[in-house]
Amino acid sequence: MNDMHDMTGLPEIDGARLWSDLMTMGAIGGTARGGSFRPALSGADAEARNLFAHWAREAGLALSVDRVGNMFARREGRDPSLPPLMIGSHLDTQMPGGKFDGVLGVLAGLAVVRALNAAGLETQRAIEIVNWTNEEGARFQPGLMGSAVFAGLLPLDEVLARTDRKGLSVRDELAATGYAGPVPAGGREVHKYLELHIEQGPELEKNGAVIGAVTNSSWGCSGFIEIRGENGHSQTAAMSRRRNALVGAAKLILAIEEIGAAQEPAGMVSATVVENWPNNRVNIPHLAKLSYVVVHETAEGRQAIIDRIEEAARRIAEDSHLDIETTTAHFRDRLDFSPDLLDLTVKTAEGRGLSVMTLPTLTAHDALSIHFVAPVAIVFVPCRDGISHSELEWCEPEHATAGARVLLDMALAAANEG
Amino acid sequence: MNDMHDMTGLPEIDGARLWSDLMTMGAIGGTARGGSFRPALSGADAEARNLFAHWAREAGLALSVDRVGNMFARREGRDPSLPPLMIGSHLDTQMPGGKFDGVLGVLAGLAVVRALNAAGLETQRAIEIVNWTNEEGARFQPGLMGSAVFAGLLPLDEVLARTDRKGLSVRDELAATGYAGPVPAGGREVHKYLELHIEQGPELEKNGAVIGAVTNSSWGCSGFIEIRGENGHSQTAAMSRRRNALVGAAKLILAIEEIGAAQEPAGMVSATVVENWPNNRVNIPHLAKLSYVVVHETAEGRQAIIDRIEEAARRIAEDSHLDIETTTAHFRDRLDFSPDLLDLTVKTAEGRGLSVMTLPTLTAHDALSIHFVAPVAIVFVPCRDGISHSELEWCEPEHATAGARVLLDMALAAANEG
């Protein structure tokens, strides 16, 4: 006898199967150090999608794919006319990323459905397990792409025209992978949306909690810096007279790191992207570009970070005789998630005897898009040392199972609402 | 009457034509700020080559192209069996570069031949004006490519397989531009080689000299640094515990700049190339690479720079919890150029009433390759503020003419040697 049913006959998560699925999925695009390399709409992402589709059919689910490649695996409810409960996240990863970020939320959804199937339980509403296209934004930008189009936050045509660094478009890569679906993206009602995710931070671990009920998102934005110097010969031009754009970029990278460290843990910022022209050894760089993400628990904190970076840019421009321009974009304001679902998360975890805490999320999830069309709950489980977007990302098997169990109970409650 | 002949009937450089040619050539791939963008074997480089071929034929020269795309425009001598005198440099530029670096040496060669033609003067030996392929190394590496293959320093097949950042090979781009010539590269005797070039440094200008007779090259090498940290999420990972490879790179860029500035003017070094992985805003960079060129007047100075960079790398690795590996390559030792030709340069300049000084070159020229198969002379003229590899690069018209006049007299002497 396996643990699929407990003695009372209630549906239960098969933790061993969920773990096996996570490891199998992680092997697609698997890296030597234990991570996964599955940028959106790559060959590896297509393989991951195919495997999800296979498992979904195996579980008796009806698969549909929309025009931006979002995959919906539907378990019909007693009343097919009611808006479905959705459970989901994403199967794409950073380059490289880990085995759990996103994947847990999708595969735990399958585990929920399998548990209902094994118990022979119907629900009033359909349950749809969703794999959103390109949550990570690693290959195509922006991230949260599929969920944003579904929620009407981004126009489909604009998104389809986005290209990766090789110039390949979302449109072409959807076609190449076979995931340019026929179904219109969004435009239909969603009853509620549940997303199980590793925390990606250290709070649950630090507090000895197994379940995190996420209250709200944080204040974020992206920043961009252009540093303009003057080109010249790196072996002959007098060093004291150079206007080296890369030297300005280096000073800014360090200044931004200091500004971030001073805000921790309420907020952070790191310059993580650099481009440099002409990037040839014999040339003094005449143009460098940096970009970064600002995140903070408060609007004032976000603004303070932006202000300090601009201050640093002015100081470095003057000291280094460079022209430096800073801009900001992609402002995300705090979202407060459904109090009812937050309450349900806490009560469900307590009912399962799991230690639970409430906390905000510093980073974005697909639930931030779906929040605009339906009540959402984000449920966190711990990840080791708060590490994610990393080959070292790790979630203990019992935490994955615990998260799926909370999801199962929440799904049963929400899918049986009239 | 133009200045093509002076009153004595001796051959003379047409300075106005030379200037006009420089401006015409500079307009090919011309940039808004007055520079040129003609990476080797680009469409613009092909146009520049076609124009050179046109002017060469117009001057009655016989054109040949070798297998690495080097172009030779030959004015036959009285004894065709004698090895030719060569005059040359290159028409490719940095991205972007200026109107004079390389171009002056090729077009001044044409001006010399036109002067001989106009005066009806024959020479004992043939004179060949050469455009060497890919001196700059901006698109394909290494630089001095064509001259190095000609001198037997690099195997042809290895060079033809080199690719640019888009993966296009030298072989394919030679074919695409029509400059995959039939003539074997090198393997023939060269009597002597003369290269007129802008100084690319400030010494002539500073000393009020119009002609520089170049004594020797400097001690150089390339350096490469790999900085390995750990990937992670830029919005959630504790800042104090990050191992951010780009932060290590930034510290090294500034350390290297300081090391370079401390050596000036005897030597220099700047980190000018950076690559960063995964270079996405939401990821802590786990790998960054830097590279740079070291140049110094002495072997000890070169070594001291290398040592100090390694020292800085060790210190930064420890402070920032990063793995940093430094390597060096492409060592160039000092070359002492032909004393006879040096003497001829000085005497010729003096004979023309031009102020002349001797000086080393910090940077490489095609003459450094040809030095291994024939005596070479490098003749410098001033460039404004020592600026080169820059859209602001500038050579006064009278200096271009003065250089070409010295080249003319030297060519007449060398091409009439038995």
Automatic annotation (TrEMBL), chains A, B:
Pfam families membership: Peptidase_M20
PANTHER family per record: ALLANTOATE AMIDOHYDROLASE, ALLANTOATE DEIMINASE-RELATED
UniProt superkingdom: Bacteria
Residues given in the record as Zn(2+) 2 binding sites: D101, E136, H389
GO molecular function: hydrolase activity, acting on carbon-nitrogen (but not peptide) bonds, in linear amidines; metal ion binding
Keyword vocabulary terms for this entry: Hydrolase, Metal-binding, Zinc
EC main group: hydrolase
Protein family according to the UniProt entry: Belongs to the peptidase M20 family.
EC number in record: 3.5.-.-
Claim: Chloroplast is one of the keywords in the record: no
Cofactor(s) for this UniProt protein: Zn(2+)
Cofactor remark from the record: Binds 2 Zn(2+) ions per subunit.
Record-linked InterPro entries: Amidase_Cbmase, Bact_exopeptidase_dim_dom, Peptidase_M20
Protein name, UniProt field: Hydantoinase/carbamoylase family amidase
Entry binding sites for Zn(2+) 1: H90, D101, H197
